[in-house]
Design goal:
This protein has a domain of 183 residues. It is 41% helix and 7% strand. It has 12 helices and 5 strands. Strands 2-3-1-4-5 form a 5-stranded parallel β-sheet, sandwiched between helices. It is globular and about 50 Å long.
Amino acid sequence: MALPCGARPTRRPSAAWDTDAIGAISGAAMTRAPHDLIFSVHIPKTGGTSFAEVLRHAYGRRVAFAYGPHHARTHPLLRELGKKADRSVVARLAEEGVRVVHGHFSASVFADAVPDPSRYWIWLREPVERTISHFHFFKDKHAARGALGTQVSAGTLPLTAFAAHPAIRNLQARHVGPFAVSEFGFVGLTEHMTAGLRQLGLSAPVGRTPTANVNREKPEFDRQTRAAIAAENITDVAVYSEGLRVFLERERRPGSVRAPQTIGFVARTLDRWRTVPAPERAE
């Protein structure tokens, strides 16, 4: 069951969370070498654009973005990423000093080259809310892309049909890829972005507040519609439930999540003189 937006997760111990598996994964995350390249999976409409800003603030040009071959911010080595990344690409990124790869890709893209799940980060969102947000993103004609977006923006594809579309159904589970959610080095929840950043020891740029991608202009939908969306995304519901369990477990184990060392003030200042375009506001 999802926590209400804005509520702080409790840190009260629970015997149900004290499993050997979670403890082992937490230990693995703590012992991972700090210089290991991290792969941050940005599932659409989970706050990934806000997180990209946090990463850029923390690591500057040591972040390599992967938003497709035509996006100005995509790293040259990641423009032809395909369904599977070559080990040589990962090695060259590391040689260039890249600390985090962030973008729209499934964990399966890098899984063969880097099979260690503790080197993967992911943000999850309550599946019904994520689907509704995605639908309304496409309803904005400026955001519509491809045949699916065109149908939504034209009003020819209703929300329930959108939720059942193969490109949308269980989208989060497909981004998780071959790993168990509990194996990821970091699992964040869009509804609790501030707490997730605290787990990572990261913060937003001064004057910026990380947003949970809340669109207050979205209409409310009745229980029947929401139930229909959930029914089409049962696997995502299970993934989110597991993500919530892992997130709460790590909330009560401070230090169980490790992030690469952030860059210093001087390096960050120099990077500002060589800034490249930020990802489009897609979250």
